[in-house]
Design a protein that fits this description.
The chain is mainly beta and 428 residues long. It is 12% helix and 37% strand.
Length: 428
Amino acid sequence: MVFKRFVMSLLLVIPILIGSQKEMWAQSNQSPFVYAVEWSESGDVVVVVRRDGITVYDRAYQPVSFRPFPPDITFRVPDVVLSPDGSYILVNTDVWSTDTLELVTALQEPDVLPYSAQWNPNSTQIALRSGAGRETRIYNVADGSILRRFDQGVWGNGFTPAWSSNELYFATLNSMTTVSILDALSGMTITEFSLNVDRIMGMWWSPDITHLAVYTLLEVPVGTPGSFPIVGRVDDSKAHLTSIYIVEALTGSISTFIETVPGVVKSLAWNRSGSQIAAETSFNGILIWNTKAGMLEDSFPSPPSSPLSLGFSSLGGRLFLGRNPALPLPSGTLGSFQPMSNYQQDYLNDVVVMVMPAPSPGKLSDIISQCDLPSEVNQSLESSIDSNDLAGFLQQIGSLSDNQISPDCRDELTAVADALVYREQSSI
């Protein structure tokens, strides 16, 4: 399962006390606070960062290893970024093994103040953005050496640069409103484009590297529909309006404009096909949009947490949310039709929640097309979908052997079909 990772900024997190009755680890006298949840792209490794230390879990969400932080860490916990293959964790400027939580490599020139970090897809290189200036460094994980560096970007924007998954491009800012697409090997500018906004707050590449989701702020008069107050601003006549642009990365052409996003966008993720984005907003919870039409397809309450980690599964049928386990789940529905009590699964002491956004027969067919099933199985499942025989569909999925269907496909199809069954039952 591909889990799009969004590291919780330690400058923004509001630590919340976790109830001691549910602690998996009680290694410290300090009250443990959850700072971040990180997933590997396969879903085989989950890392939870708390005030007392780092815990690594396996695919079954069982604790594998734990490393406490030194007792002198009181106000700051190291920034942690898990490699895509789950083998390594970047802890500030050190690379640790997830098997042993021991040091593997120390990055050279550790004077850099890490402001944002990103792994390349095969977990061999790290791009580290300095918080002290505009510089980005590309490190070799094997020996910690600097492979290349370039000075480009706007200081103070922690979401950039965004490294494309094919390792060819960086998207960064040349000004608060101008995006630069750089050659990731040379640092040379390939193209630039500007948006008619007051500030660009973050950028996320689409899975196929053709588009960027660009999160922006625009100052508008107070009272403008969808706007919210500007915190700490003396001039109380202005408010912020948040928008997301879907932009063709190499031309700057705007493909889709999502006009009003209620509140601050805390995190954003694309699904694997690039047809949807999910964003966690400060006012209206989790929102799911169609990236082609800009239409809102689903919405549901956010688990209380600030900020939130979220990511689609590799097949697009499920959305995984990192949440603060000390706070109760909101009442009401989760996704379009699933009640919170019946159609959510909590893992890791309620740190991770799974939901099924916008379930539909079309989504089942889309998942089947990605599963590489035997042709006779494919035809039989599609026949059940066409005849709206969801009970028969679920029975077929349960009867397939592991040689016929992968665990990810089985889990994904079952979760979405269950959500559809509940929708049908609740509409009667």
